[in-house]
């Protein structure tokens, strides 16, 4: 056997050496390097394309936003005073208004202009990137036509002022004005030719129409006829533009048909929901909404800070006012929700990056910030946020943002909890990583206090603020609990022998956490009842209190009671066994067969006379009530008979009875009936949907809590999918080594 | 309680390093992750898998040793008790609890006193004596019962494949 092993080992080494020759390693290294460079270039290219596309599409949403905001006004009602109040005041609005008023637009022209702006906006939003760039080039060419028109008008005016009837080119100095104007026109024509991608000689000949007055003047055209040349040039330009558009119309129709066919193909391939998702992602609506809202918000901040001369001490109120002023339409509400979503997602991703944690197994929406975004949208819609005044919007928005912050803190807690509980068991985690995780957990203890303090300064105390305060207290308690568990796990990892008190400590920490949660929930309930008595009965408050009692008090109480019962059952099982003496352990010099560590200080003796550590045996008995070595069933009656028979062997028996004290749940107080006084409809604050999301989160938290709490008793959590249908027959004779019995 | 499992895995690794069993090499993949082990199993003597060296991978749960690990061969191996994707179907790796089909006795299933060494020795024994009554690979079990020569021919070709030798001229 040894000879064969040596031959096989040598042969394998030769094979490996032959396979990993220097040439192949070199080629592989070069290939990997090239692949990595290609990957980097691709990522940079994709990022650049995304930023460019989003920036180019941004005017579309901005135009629609402006149209929606001022759709009720007509041009006569727009005045300088009103425009200066708006966030766009640092644009050159008076000049634009003067232009509009002097043009005497009538109603029909305004309607046509609005439809044109809508059409242009939709084109901005839906065109592919290449055609979008081409559309921008078309706008630039129209601008160049305007420049050419301006130059031609200047030339005609200059010629009129000279007063010379006959142009005499008897010196080089007189060619200066004509030559420069002609050169400028030629430059503009070249630029337009490149932008419009004109592919035909007649088009190119038609482009320099505004050079006509110069040529006519140089050919001896009299002064009174020069304006006619300019007018002919303008007419030619309009004809050119119209002909160009008519020439391009079939291409536009064809492209539209192709696009519709592609959209139909997308829906047929992916289905309705996935098709909508594909279009959503391809049109980059999320990025567009985020950039739109950020742009408007920054403009409002600029107006507030620079124009109105406020100081930095009012940053909080300035921020809230800015958010309230920018959220006036459904588009900006969606943009605000998406921005909140992205901010929460970035904070969560940053936390993961700092702590080095892997992606948890929760629902994908729970960590992408969508919960916060949907909360913002639903709360704003149900309270009629869009129709409020700025002050009311500011107060309500502060409340909404504090709700979002509370939800974000819970998300961060879920991230940090997984990392902190797994960190003590990884042997090569650096001290810096430990320090970073501890710092973030301490931040989760401190930030809720700061949030509560600022919220009480801004908002009056209400049922809603009470719920936010309760949630902040819960996050703080959980963070402290996680830190304590982390310390306990560190001590366990560094100790030589399993520590029987470690499960007790973890159990007490969990009980303290659950107690604090229940206490906070009860305080909120009492506060709600007091408010119903004082202010008066309202259906909204009653619904909130009822939902709160069901979700936060009753279910948590039920979970806590079952947790305590499981714990007491485990403790009772292990306490039925007798403890081994230190002298006995020294005589045996044995190791625990479960953890393979020596038993020096403490051990338990099974009825079949096998020795194990108490914590190890307790964990196993939660899985199966048999001896790990000989698989003898250990039932309750076996305990009593064995322990009585073991008394005759003069062994020290220490039967400690576990504390089986169960907490009696307190009956919640019945809510007193209050006079039926309804509040204003604007103050109706429906929390059902918020509690829906919070209940969903708490459901997941409860499941994870049950799994985590049950792991303390080590139940069987193996997924049996792999071994579902096939089971091995018992023909194999596997003799369990009985070295531990010697 | 991953620290509890980690300490036991470290103890087993130390034991396997100081007293390695014959024909078996097992170690964690890297020091950062003790819950993923890689091992080499030599085919038992006087069988059709003799002289073969088969790599396998063992994945441990966070609550080891209360739950059994999962083992799968990373090379192609043709055996009645090994699935086509390499997963090993053996009683010692099944979760504790009575088997509803009645094929296994409860004391042959997983127990926390089992160890990696015992798992690997059981797998070597399984390679020597397949169990065709409840197979994981039905075609292999059928061939092993009805056409033993063909089975041994395939096994020999797999042995040569693991050793990177050319195919047999037979």
TrEMBL record, chain B:
<dbReference type="Pfam" id="PF00179">
    <property type="entry name" value="UQ_con"/>
</dbReference>
<comment type="subunit">
    <text>Interacts with AUP1 (via C-terminus); the interaction recruits UBE2G2 to lipid droplets. Interacts with ubiquitin ligases AMFR/gp78 and RNF139/TRC8; recruitment to lipid droplets by AUP1 facilitates interaction of UBE2G2 with AMFR and RNF139, leading to sterol-induced ubiquitination of 3-hydroxy-3-methylglutaryl coenzyme A reductase and its subsequent proteasomal degradation.</text>
</comment>
<keyword id="KW-0808">Transferase</keyword>
<keyword id="KW-0833">Ubl conjugation pathway</keyword>
<dbReference type="GO" id="GO:0036503">
    <property type="term" value="P:ERAD pathway"/>
</dbReference>
<feature type="domain" description="UBC core">
    <location>
        <begin position="4"/>
        <end position="164"/>
    </location>
</feature>
<dbReference type="GO" id="GO:0005783">
    <property type="term" value="C:endoplasmic reticulum"/>
</dbReference>
<dbReference type="InterPro" id="IPR023313">
    <property type="entry name" value="UBQ-conjugating_AS"/>
</dbReference>
<dbReference type="InterPro" id="IPR016135">
    <property type="entry name" value="UBQ-conjugating_enzyme/RWD"/>
</dbReference>
<comment type="function">
    <text>Accepts ubiquitin from the E1 complex and catalyzes its covalent attachment to other proteins. In vitro catalyzes 'Lys-48'-linked polyubiquitination. Involved in endoplasmic reticulum-associated degradation (ERAD). Required for sterol-induced ubiquitination of 3-hydroxy-3-methylglutaryl coenzyme A reductase and its subsequent proteasomal degradation.</text>
</comment>
<dbReference type="GO" id="GO:0006511">
    <property type="term" value="P:ubiquitin-dependent protein catabolic process"/>
</dbReference>
<keyword id="KW-0547">Nucleotide-binding</keyword>
<keyword id="KW-0067">ATP-binding</keyword>
<dbReference type="InterPro" id="IPR000608">
    <property type="entry name" value="UBC"/>
</dbReference>
<dbReference type="GO" id="GO:0005829">
    <property type="term" value="C:cytosol"/>
</dbReference>
<dbReference type="GO" id="GO:0005524">
    <property type="term" value="F:ATP binding"/>
</dbReference>
<dbReference type="GO" id="GO:0061631">
    <property type="term" value="F:ubiquitin conjugating enzyme activity"/>
</dbReference>
<feature type="active site" description="Glycyl thioester intermediate">
    <location>
        <position position="89"/>
    </location>
</feature>
<dbReference type="InterPro" id="IPR050113">
    <property type="entry name" value="Ub_conjugating_enzyme"/>
</dbReference>
<protein>
    <recommendedName>
        <fullName>Ubiquitin-conjugating enzyme E2 G2</fullName>
        <ecNumber>2.3.2.23</ecNumber>
    </recommendedName>
</protein>
<dbReference type="GO" id="GO:0000209">
    <property type="term" value="P:protein polyubiquitination"/>
</dbReference>
<comment type="similarity">
    <text>Belongs to the ubiquitin-conjugating enzyme family.</text>
</comment>
């Amino acid at each position: 056997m040894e000879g064969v092993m040596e031959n096989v080992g040598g042969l394998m080494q030769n094979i490996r050496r032959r396979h990993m020759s220097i040439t192949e390693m070199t080629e592989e290294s070069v290939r990997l390097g090239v692949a990595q460079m290609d990957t980097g270039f691709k990522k940079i290219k994709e990022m650049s394309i995304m930023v460019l596309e989003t920036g180019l599409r941004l005017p579309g949403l901005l135009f629609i936003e402006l149209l929606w905001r001022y759709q009720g006004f007509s041009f006569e009602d727009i005045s300088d005073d009103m425009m200066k109040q708006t966030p766009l005041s640092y644009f050159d609005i008076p000049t634009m208004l003067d232009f509009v008023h002097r043009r005497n637009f009538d109603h029909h022209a305004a309607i046509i202009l609005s439809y044109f702006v809508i059409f242009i906006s939709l084109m901005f939003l839906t065109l592919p990137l290449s055609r979008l760039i081409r559309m921008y080039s078309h706008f630039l060419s129209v601008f160049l036509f305007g420049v050419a028109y301006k130059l031609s008008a200047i030339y005609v005016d200059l010629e009129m002022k000279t007063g010379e009837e006959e142009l005499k080119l008897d010196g080089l100095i007189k060619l200066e004005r004509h030559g420069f104007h002609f050169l400028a026109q030629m430059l503009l024509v070249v630029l337009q030719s490149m932008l419009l991608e004109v592919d035909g000689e007649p088009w190119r000949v038609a482009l320099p129409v505004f050079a006509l007055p110069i040529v006519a003047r140089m050919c001896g055209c009299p002064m009174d006829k020069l304006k006619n040349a300019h007018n002919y040039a303008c007419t030619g330009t309009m004809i050119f533009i119209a002909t160009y558009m008519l020439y391009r119309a079939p291409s536009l129709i064809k492209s539209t048909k192709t696009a519709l066919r592609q959209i139909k193909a997308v829906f047929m391939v992916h289905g309705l929901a996935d098709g909508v998702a594909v279009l959503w992602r391809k049109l980059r609506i999320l990025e567009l909404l985020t950039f739109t809202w950020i742009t408007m918000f920054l403009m409002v901040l600029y107006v507030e800070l620079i124009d109105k001369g406020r100081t930095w001490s009012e940053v909080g109120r300035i921020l809230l006012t800015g958010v309230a002023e920018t959220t006036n339409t459904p588009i900006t509400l969606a943009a605000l929700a998406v921005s909140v979503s992205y901010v929460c997602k970035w904070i969560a991703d940053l936390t993961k990056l700092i702590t080095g944690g892997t992606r948890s197994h929760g629902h994908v929406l729970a960590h992408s910030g969508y919960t916060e975004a949907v909360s913002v949208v639903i709360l704003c819609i149900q309270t009629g946020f869009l129709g409020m005044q700025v002050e009311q919007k500011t107060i309500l928005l502060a409340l909404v943002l504090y709700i979002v912050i509370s939800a974000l803190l819970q998300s961060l807690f879920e991230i940090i909890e997984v990392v902190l509980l797994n960190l003590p068991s990884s042997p090569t985690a650096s001290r810096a990583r430990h320090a970073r995780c501890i710092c973030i957990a301490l931040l989760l203890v401190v930030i809720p206090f700061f949030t509560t303090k600022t919220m009480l300064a801004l908002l009056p105390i209400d049922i809603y603020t009470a719920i936010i305060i309760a949630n902040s207290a819960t996050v703080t308690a959980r963070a402290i609990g996680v830190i304590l568990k982390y310390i306990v796990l560190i001590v366990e990892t560094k100790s030589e022998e399993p520590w029987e008190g470690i499960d007790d400590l973890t159990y007490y920490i969990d009980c303290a956490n659950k107690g604090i949660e229940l206490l906070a929930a009860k305080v909120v309930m009492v506060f709600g009842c007091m408010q119903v008595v004082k202010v008066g009965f309202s259906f909204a408050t009653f619904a909130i209190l009822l939902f709160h009692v069901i979700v936060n008090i009753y279910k948590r109480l039920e979970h806590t009671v079952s947790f305590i019962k499981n714990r007491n059952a485990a403790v009772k099982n292990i306490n039925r066994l007798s403890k081994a003496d230190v002298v006995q352990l020294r005589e045996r010099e044995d190791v625990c067969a479960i953890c393979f560590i020596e038993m020096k200080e403490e051990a338990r003796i099974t009825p079949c006379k096998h020795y194990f550590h108490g914590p190890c045996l307790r964990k196993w008995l939660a899985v199966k009530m048999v001896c790990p070595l000989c698989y003898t069933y250990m039932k309750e009656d076996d305990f009593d008979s064995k322990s009585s028979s073991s008394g005759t062997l003069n062994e020290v028996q220490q039967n400690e009875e576990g504390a089986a004290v169960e907490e009696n749940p307190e009956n919640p107080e019945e809510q007193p009936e209050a006079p039926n006084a309804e509040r204003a409809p604007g103050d109706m604050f429906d929390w059902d949907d918020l509690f829906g999301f919070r209940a969903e989160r708490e459901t997941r938290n409860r499941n994870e809590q049950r799994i985590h709490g049950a792991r303390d008793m080590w139940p069987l959590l193996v997924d049996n999918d792999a071994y579902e249908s096939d089971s091995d027959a018992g023909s194999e004779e596997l003799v369990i080594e009985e070295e531990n019995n010697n | 309680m991953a620290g509890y499992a980690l300490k036991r895995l470290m103890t087993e690794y130390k034991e396997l390093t100081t007293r390695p069993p014959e024909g078996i090499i097992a170690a964690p993949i890297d020091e950062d992750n003790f819950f993923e082990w890689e091992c080499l199993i030599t085919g038992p003597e006087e069988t059709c898998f003799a002289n073969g060296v088969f790599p396998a991978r063992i994945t441990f749960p966070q609550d080891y040793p209360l739950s059994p690990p999962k083992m799968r061969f990373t090379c192609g191996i043709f055996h009645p008790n090994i699935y086509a994707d390499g997963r090993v179907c053996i009683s010692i790796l099944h979760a504790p609890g009575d088997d509803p089909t009645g094929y296994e006795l409860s004391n042959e299933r997983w127990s926390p006193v089992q160890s990696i060494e015992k798992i690997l020795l059981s797998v070597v024994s399984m390679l020597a004596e397949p169990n065709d009554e409840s197979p994981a690979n039905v075609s292999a079990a059928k061939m092993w019962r009805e056409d033993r020569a063909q089975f041994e021919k395939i096994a020999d070709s797999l042995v040569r494949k693991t050793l990177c030798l050319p195919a047999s001229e037979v």
